[in-house]
Design brief:
Layout lengths: L6 E4 L7 H16 L5 E4 L6 H8 L3 E4 L6 H6 L5 E4 L6 H9 L3 E4 L3 H15 L3 E5 L5 H7 L5 E4 L2 H6 L7 E5 L5 H14 L4 E2 L5 H11 L6 E5 L5 H12 L4 E5 L15 E6 L5 H14 L1
Parallel strand pairs: 1-12, 2-3, 2-4, 4-5, 6-7, 6-8, 8-9, 10-11, 10-12
Protein backbone atom coordinates (compact mmCIF):
# COMPACT_ATOMS: atom_id res chain seq x y z
CA UNK A 1 0.00 0.00 0.00
CA UNK A 2 2.33 2.76 1.21
CA UNK A 3 6.04 2.83 0.48
CA UNK A 4 7.30 5.37 2.99
CA UNK A 5 8.53 7.56 0.16
CA UNK A 6 5.25 9.38 -0.27
CA UNK A 7 5.65 13.16 -0.46
CA UNK A 8 3.02 15.11 1.46
CA UNK A 9 3.07 18.85 0.95
CA UNK A 10 0.90 21.82 1.80
CA UNK A 11 -0.05 24.08 -1.08
CA UNK A 12 0.94 27.70 -0.51
CA UNK A 13 -1.15 29.79 -0.19
CA UNK A 14 -4.09 27.97 1.33
CA UNK A 15 -6.52 28.44 4.20
CA UNK A 16 -7.66 31.64 5.89
CA UNK A 17 -7.77 34.90 3.93
CA UNK A 18 -7.73 38.40 5.39
CA UNK A 19 -11.52 38.76 5.13
CA UNK A 20 -12.12 35.63 7.17
CA UNK A 21 -9.51 36.57 9.78
CA UNK A 22 -11.10 40.00 10.13
CA UNK A 23 -14.65 38.63 10.43
CA UNK A 24 -13.69 36.15 13.15
CA UNK A 25 -11.76 38.82 15.04
CA UNK A 26 -14.74 41.19 14.89
CA UNK A 27 -17.04 38.50 16.26
CA UNK A 28 -14.70 37.62 19.13
CA UNK A 29 -14.05 41.30 19.91
CA UNK A 30 -17.78 41.94 19.98
CA UNK A 31 -18.22 39.22 22.60
CA UNK A 32 -15.24 40.46 24.62
CA UNK A 33 -16.57 44.02 24.64
CA UNK A 34 -20.15 42.94 25.36
CA UNK A 35 -19.89 40.01 27.77
CA UNK A 36 -23.54 40.11 28.87
CA UNK A 37 -25.25 40.94 25.57
CA UNK A 38 -27.05 38.51 23.32
CA UNK A 39 -25.12 38.27 20.05
CA UNK A 40 -26.47 36.82 16.82
CA UNK A 41 -24.89 36.23 13.41
CA UNK A 42 -27.26 36.59 10.48
CA UNK A 43 -26.14 33.54 8.49
CA UNK A 44 -22.81 31.71 8.77
CA UNK A 45 -20.08 34.25 9.54
CA UNK A 46 -17.85 32.38 7.09
CA UNK A 47 -18.71 29.13 5.37
CA UNK A 48 -17.14 26.66 7.74
CA UNK A 49 -19.07 24.68 10.33
CA UNK A 50 -16.06 24.44 12.66
CA UNK A 51 -15.86 28.23 12.87
CA UNK A 52 -19.58 28.29 13.68
CA UNK A 53 -19.02 25.73 16.45
CA UNK A 54 -16.16 27.70 17.96
CA UNK A 55 -18.24 30.89 18.01
CA UNK A 56 -21.11 29.04 19.66
CA UNK A 57 -18.77 28.24 22.55
CA UNK A 58 -18.61 32.01 23.10
CA UNK A 59 -22.41 32.06 23.17
CA UNK A 60 -22.56 33.72 19.78
CA UNK A 61 -25.68 32.36 18.08
CA UNK A 62 -25.64 31.68 14.34
CA UNK A 63 -29.02 32.02 12.65
CA UNK A 64 -28.81 30.07 9.41
CA UNK A 65 -31.67 28.35 7.61
CA UNK A 66 -31.77 27.84 3.85
CA UNK A 67 -35.56 27.84 3.98
CA UNK A 68 -35.74 31.22 5.70
CA UNK A 69 -34.59 34.58 4.34
CA UNK A 70 -32.27 36.84 6.30
CA UNK A 71 -35.11 39.34 6.58
CA UNK A 72 -37.25 36.72 8.29
CA UNK A 73 -34.40 35.59 10.54
CA UNK A 74 -33.81 39.19 11.57
CA UNK A 75 -37.43 39.51 12.68
CA UNK A 76 -36.88 36.72 15.23
CA UNK A 77 -34.25 38.80 17.05
CA UNK A 78 -35.75 40.91 19.84
CA UNK A 79 -32.64 42.29 21.53
CA UNK A 80 -28.87 42.37 21.46
CA UNK A 81 -26.27 42.75 18.73
CA UNK A 82 -26.48 41.47 15.16
CA UNK A 83 -23.32 40.57 13.25
CA UNK A 84 -23.51 40.65 9.45
CA UNK A 85 -21.40 38.00 7.74
CA UNK A 86 -18.25 38.38 5.64
CA UNK A 87 -20.31 37.93 2.46
CA UNK A 88 -21.95 41.35 2.57
CA UNK A 89 -25.45 42.47 3.49
CA UNK A 90 -28.23 44.50 1.90
CA UNK A 91 -28.83 48.11 2.92
CA UNK A 92 -32.46 47.15 3.52
CA UNK A 93 -31.49 44.70 6.27
CA UNK A 94 -29.17 47.25 7.85
CA UNK A 95 -31.97 49.79 7.94
CA UNK A 96 -34.42 47.28 9.43
CA UNK A 97 -31.89 46.33 12.10
CA UNK A 98 -31.68 49.96 13.19
CA UNK A 99 -35.49 50.31 13.07
CA UNK A 100 -35.76 47.38 15.48
CA UNK A 101 -33.48 49.18 17.92
CA UNK A 102 -30.70 46.64 17.51
CA UNK A 103 -27.01 47.33 17.28
CA UNK A 104 -25.05 45.74 14.45
CA UNK A 105 -21.47 44.87 13.54
CA UNK A 106 -20.70 44.60 9.84
CA UNK A 107 -18.07 41.93 9.13
CA UNK A 108 -18.33 42.31 5.34
CA UNK A 109 -15.07 41.57 3.53
CA UNK A 110 -13.43 44.67 2.04
CA UNK A 111 -13.12 42.93 -1.33
CA UNK A 112 -16.86 42.21 -1.35
CA UNK A 113 -17.60 45.85 -0.50
CA UNK A 114 -15.24 47.00 -3.25
CA UNK A 115 -17.17 45.00 -5.83
CA UNK A 116 -20.49 46.33 -4.52
CA UNK A 117 -19.23 49.91 -4.80
CA UNK A 118 -18.07 49.36 -8.39
CA UNK A 119 -21.51 47.99 -9.25
CA UNK A 120 -23.23 50.97 -7.61
CA UNK A 121 -21.10 53.38 -9.64
CA UNK A 122 -22.16 51.78 -12.91
CA UNK A 123 -25.81 51.74 -11.84
CA UNK A 124 -25.63 55.48 -11.16
CA UNK A 125 -24.39 55.94 -14.72
CA UNK A 126 -27.46 54.13 -16.06
CA UNK A 127 -25.94 50.72 -16.75
CA UNK A 128 -27.57 47.34 -16.47
CA UNK A 129 -25.27 44.99 -14.53
CA UNK A 130 -24.67 41.36 -15.41
CA UNK A 131 -23.42 39.60 -12.29
CA UNK A 132 -21.78 36.18 -12.52
CA UNK A 133 -22.34 34.43 -9.21
CA UNK A 134 -23.79 31.43 -7.43
CA UNK A 135 -27.56 31.45 -7.01
CA UNK A 136 -28.56 31.55 -3.34
CA UNK A 137 -25.08 32.46 -2.13
CA UNK A 138 -25.17 35.30 0.45
CA UNK A 139 -22.61 37.39 -1.45
CA UNK A 140 -24.74 37.20 -4.59
CA UNK A 141 -27.95 37.86 -2.65
CA UNK A 142 -26.46 41.01 -1.12
CA UNK A 143 -25.51 42.30 -4.57
CA UNK A 144 -28.87 41.49 -6.14
CA UNK A 145 -30.64 43.42 -3.37
CA UNK A 146 -29.01 46.63 -4.58
CA UNK A 147 -31.13 47.06 -7.71
CA UNK A 148 -33.49 45.24 -10.06
CA UNK A 149 -31.14 46.27 -12.86
CA UNK A 150 -28.67 43.63 -11.67
CA UNK A 151 -29.07 40.32 -13.51
CA UNK A 152 -27.70 37.13 -11.97
CA UNK A 153 -25.83 34.78 -14.28
CA UNK A 154 -24.88 31.39 -12.89
CA UNK A 155 -24.00 29.67 -16.17
CA UNK A 156 -23.40 30.20 -19.87
CA UNK A 157 -27.01 29.13 -20.45
CA UNK A 158 -28.23 31.99 -18.21
CA UNK A 159 -26.15 34.41 -20.23
CA UNK A 160 -27.55 33.21 -23.54
CA UNK A 161 -31.14 33.38 -22.24
CA UNK A 162 -30.70 36.97 -21.09
CA UNK A 163 -32.24 39.52 -23.42
CA UNK A 164 -31.00 43.06 -22.84
CA UNK A 165 -31.01 46.03 -25.16
CA UNK A 166 -28.92 49.16 -25.14
CA UNK A 167 -25.20 49.85 -25.03
CA UNK A 168 -24.83 50.51 -21.31
CA UNK A 169 -24.05 47.04 -20.02
CA UNK A 170 -21.52 46.08 -17.37
CA UNK A 171 -20.38 42.58 -16.36
CA UNK A 172 -18.62 41.60 -13.14
CA UNK A 173 -18.59 38.66 -10.75
CA UNK A 174 -18.80 37.22 -7.26
CA UNK A 175 -15.36 37.39 -5.67
CA UNK A 176 -15.02 33.62 -5.13
CA UNK A 177 -15.68 32.30 -8.64
CA UNK A 178 -13.29 30.22 -10.76
CA UNK A 179 -11.05 32.22 -13.09
CA UNK A 180 -11.35 29.42 -15.68
CA UNK A 181 -15.14 29.81 -15.72
CA UNK A 182 -14.80 33.56 -16.01
CA UNK A 183 -12.50 33.38 -19.03
CA UNK A 184 -15.05 31.35 -20.98
CA UNK A 185 -18.02 33.39 -19.82
CA UNK A 186 -16.38 36.73 -20.63
CA UNK A 187 -15.61 35.62 -24.20
CA UNK A 188 -19.18 34.51 -24.81
CA UNK A 189 -20.63 37.64 -23.21
CA UNK A 190 -18.48 39.88 -25.41
CA UNK A 191 -19.71 38.10 -28.53
CA UNK A 192 -23.34 38.56 -27.53
CA UNK A 193 -22.91 42.14 -26.31
CA UNK A 194 -19.95 43.75 -28.14
CA UNK A 195 -20.26 47.03 -26.22
CA UNK A 196 -20.18 45.24 -22.86
CA UNK A 197 -17.77 46.60 -20.24
CA UNK A 198 -16.18 43.80 -18.24
CA UNK A 199 -14.37 43.99 -14.92
CA UNK A 200 -13.08 40.79 -13.33
CA UNK A 201 -13.47 40.91 -9.54
CA UNK A 202 -12.08 37.62 -8.22
CA UNK A 203 -10.38 38.54 -4.95
CA UNK A 204 -6.62 38.03 -4.60
CA UNK A 205 -7.06 35.32 -1.98
CA UNK A 206 -9.26 33.26 -4.31
CA UNK A 207 -7.14 33.72 -7.42
CA UNK A 208 -3.82 33.03 -5.67
CA UNK A 209 -5.14 29.78 -4.19
CA UNK A 210 -6.51 28.70 -7.56
CA UNK A 211 -3.31 29.53 -9.45
CA UNK A 212 -1.19 27.66 -6.89
CA UNK A 213 -3.08 24.48 -7.75
CA UNK A 214 -2.46 24.87 -11.49
CA UNK A 215 1.30 24.95 -10.81
CA UNK A 216 1.48 21.64 -8.96
CA UNK A 217 3.89 19.22 -10.61
CA UNK A 218 3.22 15.47 -10.80
CA UNK A 219 0.45 15.61 -8.19
CA UNK A 220 -1.18 12.20 -7.75
CA UNK A 221 -3.73 13.21 -5.12
CA UNK A 222 -4.99 16.60 -3.97
CA UNK A 223 -6.98 16.99 -0.77
CA UNK A 224 -9.06 20.17 -0.54
CA UNK A 225 -9.98 20.85 3.08
CA UNK A 226 -13.12 22.89 3.60
CA UNK A 227 -16.86 23.06 4.08
CA UNK A 228 -19.26 21.89 1.38
CA UNK A 229 -21.05 25.25 1.71
CA UNK A 230 -17.92 27.18 0.82
CA UNK A 231 -17.99 28.38 -2.79
CA UNK A 232 -14.28 29.17 -2.97
CA UNK A 233 -13.49 25.69 -1.60
CA UNK A 234 -15.66 24.07 -4.26
CA UNK A 235 -13.90 26.08 -6.97
CA UNK A 236 -10.52 24.76 -5.75
CA UNK A 237 -11.84 21.25 -6.37
CA UNK A 238 -12.97 22.27 -9.87
CA UNK A 239 -9.61 23.87 -10.67
CA UNK A 240 -7.75 20.78 -9.48
CA UNK A 241 -9.81 18.51 -11.73
CA UNK A 242 -9.50 20.82 -14.74
CA UNK A 243 -5.74 21.05 -14.18
CA UNK A 244 -5.42 17.34 -14.83
CA UNK A 245 -4.69 16.15 -11.29
CA UNK A 246 -5.45 12.43 -11.16
CA UNK A 247 -7.53 12.49 -7.98
CA UNK A 248 -9.05 15.52 -6.21
CA UNK A 249 -10.99 14.98 -2.99
CA UNK A 250 -12.96 17.41 -0.82
CA UNK A 251 -12.75 16.66 2.90
CA UNK A 252 -13.89 18.59 5.96
CA UNK A 253 -11.21 17.15 8.27
CA UNK A 254 -8.78 14.26 8.63
CA UNK A 255 -11.59 11.91 9.67
CA UNK A 256 -12.91 12.03 6.10
CA UNK A 257 -9.70 10.48 4.74
CA UNK A 258 -10.05 6.98 3.32
CA UNK A 259 -6.60 5.36 3.39
CA UNK A 260 -7.47 3.39 0.26
CA UNK A 261 -7.26 6.65 -1.68
CA UNK A 262 -3.53 6.83 -0.91
CA UNK A 263 -2.74 3.62 -2.73
CA UNK A 264 -0.32 4.26 -5.57
CA UNK A 265 0.06 7.95 -4.71
CA UNK A 266 3.65 9.22 -4.58
CA UNK A 267 2.94 12.94 -4.33
CA UNK A 268 0.05 14.12 -2.18
CA UNK A 269 -0.80 17.79 -1.74
CA UNK A 270 -3.14 19.49 0.70
CA UNK A 271 -4.86 22.80 0.09
CA UNK A 272 -7.83 24.49 1.75
CA UNK A 273 -10.56 27.01 1.21
CA UNK A 274 -10.21 30.57 2.48
CA UNK A 275 -12.58 29.87 5.39
CA UNK A 276 -10.83 26.71 6.61
CA UNK A 277 -9.15 26.96 10.05
CA UNK A 278 -5.37 26.34 10.00
CA UNK A 279 -5.77 23.68 12.71
CA UNK A 280 -7.85 21.50 10.38
CA UNK A 281 -5.25 21.75 7.62
CA UNK A 282 -2.43 20.86 9.99
CA UNK A 283 -4.35 17.88 11.36
CA UNK A 284 -4.82 16.52 7.84
CA UNK A 285 -1.11 16.85 7.05
CA UNK A 286 -0.05 15.28 10.36
CA UNK A 287 -2.48 12.39 9.87
CA UNK A 288 -1.25 11.73 6.34
CA UNK A 289 2.39 11.79 7.41
CA UNK A 290 1.65 9.39 10.20
CA UNK A 291 0.00 6.96 7.79
CA UNK A 292 2.34 7.33 4.79
Amino acid sequence: MYNGLMEIKKVVPSGYCKGVVNAIKLAKDTRRDNPDEKIYILGMLVHNSYVTQELSKLNIITLDDTRTSKEELLETIKEGIVIFTAHGISDRIKERTVQKGLRYVDASCVDVLKTQNIIKEYLLQGYDVLYFGKSGHPEAEAVLSISDKIHLISSEEDLKKLSLSGDKLFLTNQTTMSYLELEDLFKIAKKIYPSLIIQEEICNATSSRQLAITKLQDCDLLYVVGDVKSNNTGKLVDIGKKSGIKKVLLIQNYKDIDLKDLEGADKVYVTAGASTPPSLINEVIEYLRAKA
